[in-house]
Amino acid sequence: MSNLHGHQTPPIARQNETHMTPHSPPPYVTDQSALESLCHTLRQSPRLALDTEFVGEDTFIPRLELIQVATATTAAVIDFPAVQANGSLDVFWELICDAKIEKVFHAGRQDLDLFALHAGQIPKPFFDTQIAAAMVGYGAQVAYANLVQRLHGTKLAKAHTFTNWSARPLSDDQIAYALEDVEFLLSIHTHLQDRLKTLGRSEWVNEEFARLESVVGEKSREPQERYQRIRGWDTLKPKGAAVLRELAVWREAEARRRNVPRGRVMRDEVLLQLARHPPKSVNDLRGLRGVHSSEVDRQGAQLLAAITSALALPPSAWPEVPSERKPDPESTGIVELLQAVLKARAAEEGIAPTMLATSADLQTLVEAKQNRTALNIPILHGWRRQLAGDLLLQVLDGAVTVSVDSTSGALRINAGSPSISQS
């Protein structure tokens, strides 16, 4: 593995050997007494490596099955349903919400969602190694196994990748496989902290963790905003979008009440069809493809009430639907230029370009600049603006020149300072 300056970086030493001592709690915890003993041990550590295994295919709220946790000297798998069946996990929830203990995850969004649900709050402070890795040159959304192999030289087994974690009993191999997900996290955490400090990016990553915290239970996941996650919603007319919004709210409540996946109540494409061609009666509902007669019998009246309520809304209460206008060729060319500049800047700084901005962000930036309208996108805030946002604005203002070096073929960006070059 090469660092940001092209030098080879040797595998890091494993800093969280998880060998169990004679007085350590068992690695597989199935009752409250063992959990309390484990938590007493864990509380002595200033940081915890955490991961979860859950099953989400058949329920509205994913079923938490296992919690993996490790310190520098202890590792354990907590059998959530076994402990919960005859006791309480309150002592564990209290532990992970202790502000004096740092919680370390890899790609921890779903873990944080589950912990926030069960503990009643987001366990803070936390550190996400996937986010941090993207900021020091390991690429966007790097997998945990990839990091382990690059930093430790250890290839993790994939034998239980598709394990049904709700099946019991678990084998010793399954427990060992689950423990691997936290075995290397603390040493990776230490390595990434050192790299962030060396590069002066500790504040940057803290800004990203704050963004992650804000989307755990974000507004866009509220029922009134859920319709925007249905593919094709932005092809509707505003009145149709209002109908879809109300139908999505109905489905959300019904799925939660039954604790089943949303699609089991009604599929996205059916909701979209109802929004495009709102039925006027129960008989109209029965004639629609994809609407089961049992669902009509059970919820037909509520469905029609939601549709009628949406259709009665005044235009001022209809959702705004994005324009279907395609970008003109000139703005598309400018976006491509900005993409090239962004990639060059990202390569110079050893950071994944997708961490800075998406193509949609750049298109929005170009259109806002052309129309002289204000906008709120990540590239114009915080560390992103410092690293690349101001430079992109300078490109749009014509304050910098972009050219290709005739000798090296590198992209050269001259902004009144030493040029950035990218092969």
Question: How would you describe what is shown here?
Answer:
The structure is a single chain. The protein is of the alpha/beta class. It folds into three domains: 28-217, Nucleotidyltransferase, domain 5; 221-317, HRDC domain (DNA polymerase, domain 1); 329-422, HRDC domain (DNA polymerase, domain 1, Orthogonal Bundle), CATH 1.10.150.80. Helix content is 48%, strand content 10%. It is built from 17 helices and nine strands. The chain has helices spanning 32-42, 80-86, 90-96, 109-119, 129-135, 144-152, 172-183, 185-199, 202-215, 238-258, 262-265, 268-276, 282-286, 293-311, 329-349, 359-371, 382-397; strands spanning 28-29, 47-55, 63-70, 75-79, 102-105, 126-128, 401-404, 411-414, 420-422. The strands form two sheets. A six-stranded mixed sheet has the order 1-4-3-2-5-6. A hairpin with a 6-residue loop joins strand 7 (401-404) and strand 8 (411-414). Helix 15 packs across helix 17.
Which descriptors apply to this entry?
9 strands, 6-stranded mixed beta sheet, disordered N terminus, alpha/beta, 48% helix, 423 residues, DNA polymerase, domain 1, 3-stranded antiparallel beta sheet, Nucleotidyltransferase, domain 5, 3 domains
